[in-house]
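Supplementary notes (optional reading)

For those who missed the lab, this is the record we used. Protein: 60S ribosomal protein L5. Length: 199 residues.
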Amino acid sequence: AAYCTGLLLARRLLNKFGLDSVYEGQLEVTGDEYNVESIDGKPGAFTCYLDAGLARTTTGNKVFGALKGAVDGGLSIPHSTKRFPGYDCESKEFNAEVHRKHIMGQNVSEYMSYLMEEDEDAYKKQFSRFIKNGVTPDKVNDMYTKAHAAIRENPVHEKKPLKEVKKKRWNRAKLSLAQRKDRVAQKKSSFLRAQEQAD
């Protein structure tokens, strides 16, 4: 999902600046390292930098999934493979196939299969939305493939029409001057009536 978010961000941004046809990015998800290069005679590649903010920059963090999606979408972001899933810090080697499996949700489908066999109740609880939408462990890969294709086909944000909201009043509406004067007159008359009855 983080990869899809990054891909959508990249395609929308490039579409906004008219660079989406110039910089297609990486069309096939391989998980390999990919860097966008500027094309001669065309506007330069849109360069941006990752600001991790308060996110923990550990290997496999979702921030880097979004970064990979943005790079594959056609943005030029300086990065290394050290924080992508599949990087082994001991051997200092990067396994692109592990990264590809994470992008395509294979780790999730494996966990779904494991839970289906081990604990049916936990599976139904944790993956209730998947069950509701008819997503099984075999269909996760296809779901992400369709999502990537849909993002590339039409990344433009469509504004929804604003709903007419009828505001509720929680406090009492202010009385007008005429209403206040009328209220005072009513109070006076009731007070005078009470005085007359007392006498």
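If you only remember one thing from this example: The chain is about 50% helix and 0% strand.
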